[in-house]
Fold:
Amino acid sequence: MGALGVVSRGAVAGAIGTAVMTAAQAVEMRVSGRPPSLVPGEVAAKLLGRRGRGEVERLSLPMHWAHGVANGTLRGLIGRAGLRGPSASALHFAGLWSSDVVLYLALGVAGPPWRWTFGELYPDVLHKAIYCAATGAAYDRLAR
Structure:
């Protein structure tokens, strides 16, 4: 499969993974009572030089989806390297989570993860793991 096919399939798989993650987040928030995270909007606002809570709220959902679709391409590159299944999803998770932590630190959106509360850490890890598993399953299926 050529590079364009890998990237395209990865983006589609990322959209599928984002849909699964979004559904899981909705269930988890209903059960836990946790409000929606505005971190995607905070990241987007910082990157775009925008200010204000209204901007953060407005940018959160589009950034959530853009982040998921874009990171699906990373899963495509992992697949192109010959990895499939759970090992590819684990590598995808490691790359995604660590790069997000570095981005949050660089933008001043969050501190280092060892200072996060359990209530901040568990949804981030849980939902990104769900995203990577769903994106990986979708990519592997699309790549067949």
